[in-house]
Structure formats: structure tokens, C-alpha cells
Amino acid sequence: MTDAPRLEIRNIQRSFGGRAVVDDVSLTVQPGQVTCLLGPSGCGKSTTLRIIAGIEKQDAGSIWADGQMICDGTSRVPPEGRGIGLMFQDFALFPHLSVAGNVAYGLTGSARKNRARVAELLDRVGMSAHIDRYPHELSGGEQQRVALARALAPRPRIMLMDEPFSGLDDRLRDDIRDETLDVLKAEGTAVLLVTHEPGEAMRMADEIALMRDGKIVQKGAPYNIYNTPVDKEAAAFFSDINVVQASVDGALAQTAFGQFLVPGVTDGAPVDIVIRPQHLKIDFDRQGKGPNPTIADGTPARGIVKRARFMGNESLVEFTLDDGSEMKAVVPSVFLPKKGMVLWLMIRRDKCFIFPRS
């Protein structure tokens, strides 16, 4: 028999004013695993987290920790008895307590054991030198480290994190995220992280659960969920996309880039062919002289440059096609063609996604 998941939620539901905010959500998190609940604001991520923490009551469904039920429709373990740690965007450190006092808050062991646990965690998060300082004397990144140490001090089985890094500047955020992840994995804590930032989820998660309108629409490892999106909206959440609209005739969709095989789709049904900007290719050798069929993947399409911008490590070039549709291409390094220039565009068939048009 396999070990029970550290955290399991089964068919959680919660409605407000007749609207389902959390709609039949289920997931599991193993010890040492980081799962990200990813989605736009208002999709139900934070409400799910509050239900798990015990701050909010569900209308239906159950929550389990290490195979033991902690709440269902009739009984519930209070928040303080669930063995769950919490970290939020607002670190909520106690201003009247020192760093040591904040980390020790809530510990119930002997004074000697508490001091040892505080020293161990502050050393782990690199804050030993600040043990006697107060929150107002610390930077945002230092406060975040103290908040992490405080949340880990009681050795929670599960850590719930709601946008904990969004208050940090970009340069500091990456370092703090990586350090936090190392500490949590070393503790063997099961982590459920809420974020609306795909980059953060991709960087931190072992598994991503993509939420939309209260439901989990797709779950999987970051690589899989990025490269096999369940629908056009899922693809668009992780990056800009180009959409080629077409109708199916005889299992083929005719586009400016040639025909696409669309098996199993009814004749006349509309489809969206999705391609990310980095996979839209420019035939630099032709530079407006017409397509070169020896290098084209399918049929090249004629694009007129609408706008080009340098983005730092790459250039973003926007085109208008002959049929009036618009496409974006990402080109490594500096490439800034003038407005009105004609270039021939190709798409990588192996990087396209084809979805029924919603």
C-alpha cells in the first residue's frame, strides 16, 4: 500500500451569492513537493487556500492530511490543530517582537529547545546576524526570510503560500524564491503556492494546477502543461500567442501558411491554430523577394511589418498578413525592420496547437 499524500483535497466547493467560486476542486501534494495553484485574479485560488487553512468553510468536499480527514461537511479540525503553516504577501511580523521573538512565537517546547529551533532556522535563512533586530529595521527581503522561518518553526506538515513574493522587487524576488524553495524542500514540507504569475509557477513548481472560473482546468509538470495546453486560453496564459483562424473541409484547414491536417473535426467547424511568437520564423534570406520553398515549413505567408521593438534580449516584430490578420514574431538579439517592410513568415508545424474555436 502506498503512503497517503501529505495533503489531499477532494471535490471542494464554495459559493458566494449563488456563484461558485471554488467548483469541485481536487488535488494532492506529497511531502517535499511544491504545487502551484496558478490562475488570474478572482479564479478561486486564494479561497481554496483559505479553506485548506480552516479560515474559510467549504460547502462540500473534504480535506485530508497524511490520510487523516481534517474537515468535511460535518466535522472540522480547527486551524491551529491542522499542522499547516501560512505565508502571505503581507509578512505580518509582530512589530513589538525581535526577529528571535517573531520566529519563536507559537512554539510550545521548552525555552532551551525553542532557542535551538530559532537559531537553526535563522541560520538556514541567513538571518542569524539579525536575531536581536526588529521588523522595522529590516528590508523587505529580510522580513520575508524571517516570516519563512516563523512559519517553519512549528514544523508544519503543509505550507500554504499566497503570493508571498509579490511585494519584492524583481531582482531580489528570484533569489528569495530559490532560497525559500531550498529551505522548504530540506524540511520535507508539502507546499501549495498560489500565484498569478506563470514565470513564478514554472520556476518553483513540481506540479502546476491551472485554475479558471473556480475549476482546475489542467494539471501537470511545468514542461507538460506549457507544451501541451488543454485549450487556447491555457496556451495564452503562459505566453503571447498568435491565432490563425480557419474552417475544416475534408479534415483539412486552409490557412495563409498552407493546409493543416485536422482529423476528427466536422466539416465546416471553425478551429484556431495557435503558435507562440518565438515559433513564428522569418525567412531572412528572402527579405521580401518571395518564398523559398526549400526552407519553408508548409507555405510561407507574406507579412508587412507593422511595428518592431527591442525588448532587451530579443526583438518583438508585429506583422499584418495579406488577409488582414496580425502576427507577432520574437527574434533573438536586435532585429528592427522598418514599418512597411515585406518579409516572408513560416511557422513550425510541430509547435502548433489546434483547438476547436470557442
UniProtKB/TrEMBL annotation:
SUPFAM superfamilies: MOP-like (SSF50331), P-loop containing nucleoside triphosphate hydrolases (SSF52540). GO terms for molecular function: ATP binding. PROSITE patterns: ABC_TRANSPORTER_1, ABC_TRANSPORTER_2. Gene3D superfamilies: P-loop containing nucleotide triphosphate hydrolases. Pfam families: ABC_tran (PF00005), TOBE_2 (PF08402). Keywords: ATP-binding, Cell membrane, Ion transport, Iron, Iron transport, Membrane, Nucleotide-binding, Transport. Residues 7-238 form the ABC transporter domain. PANTHER family: SPERMIDINE/PUTRESCINE IMPORT ATP-BINDING PROTEIN POTA, SPERMIDINE_PUTRESCINE IMPORT ATP-BINDING PROTEIN POTA. This is ABC transporter ATP-binding protein.
